[in-house]
Amino acid sequence: MILYYYDRMSIAEIAEAMNLSESSVKSKLYQARKKIKTKLEKLGVDRSVTVHMSLVPIPALIALVADELDTSAAVVASPTSTKEICV
Known about the structure:
about 90 residues; mainly alpha; about 45% helix
């Protein structure tokens, strides 16, 4: 999601960078969008609301898909500091 929406990489570029097929990248993007939509609905966001993924802050995006990540060793770097914060 980050490569596609924030780094503006194409499906082909992501597939090459991650050593995946283009169909796998498309499938993973679809599944991530579906998961985010489901979680937003559980939070009470109206289905008619359009969420522009490139406008969602990265920490919020990570929180929406966090159950797929091993967050025990996740590191977040602040753009204004050289310190790393483990979450």
